Structures are given as C-alpha cells and as structure tokens.
C-alpha cells in the first residue's frame, strides 16, 4: 500500500481489487461496478455504507423490528 501511495503522488492510478480493507488504505475515491455499469462512486466509507452496494455484494439488506 505504501508503494502505491508513493506512486500516486505523481501519477493517477487505477487499481482493480475486491479487498476493501486494502482499497480503503490506498484510495481517495472508489468506483463500484455491477454487471458492467457504475453502481456508485464516492469515498470508500460512503461506498461501503451504500445500501445498493450491500445488496449487490452481501445480499438483501433487512431491518429487523425492535
């Protein structure tokens, strides 16, 4: 991750990976694709909280009654 951050100081990089902890360490912005189309693009923390991303990659989200 440190090497990627160093290179990114002077160049734009595109990294394709499914390892979100790693991506959170290196990325300013994250783009999530689903079935060949952009689903969302934002800061990694906001992308991970996006219900559409959770539905696509983790299954349907459900809220349990109290």
Summarize the structure.
With 66 residues, this protein is α+β, with helices and mostly antiparallel strands.
Structure description:
There is one protein chain. This protein is an alpha+beta fold and 66 residues long. The chain has one domain. 41% of the residues lie in helices and 17% in strands. It is built from 4 helices and 2 strands; from the N terminus they run ααββαα. The chain has a two-stranded antiparallel sheet with strand order 1-2. A hairpin with a 2-residue loop joins strand 1 (30-34) and strand 2. The protein is elongated, with a radius of gyration of 14 Å. The model has no long low-confidence stretch (mean pLDDT 88).
Shape field = elongated
Order the strands across the largest sheet as they lie in space.
Answer: 1-2
What does the largest sheet look like?
Answer: 2 strands, antiparallel
Q: Tell me how many strands there are.
A: 2
Using the CA coordinates, give the radius of gyration: 14 Å
Our count of domains comes out at 1
What would you call the quaternary organization?
Answer: single chain
Strand pairing plus helix content: what structural class?
A: alpha+beta
> How many helices in DSSP terms?
4
Give the DSSP E fraction (strand runs of 2 or more residues): 15-25%
Q: Segments where pLDDT lies below 50 for 5+ residues?
A: none
**Residue-averaged pLDDT, rounded?**
88
N-to-C order of helices and strands: HHEEHH
- Alpha-carbon distance between the termini? 41 Å
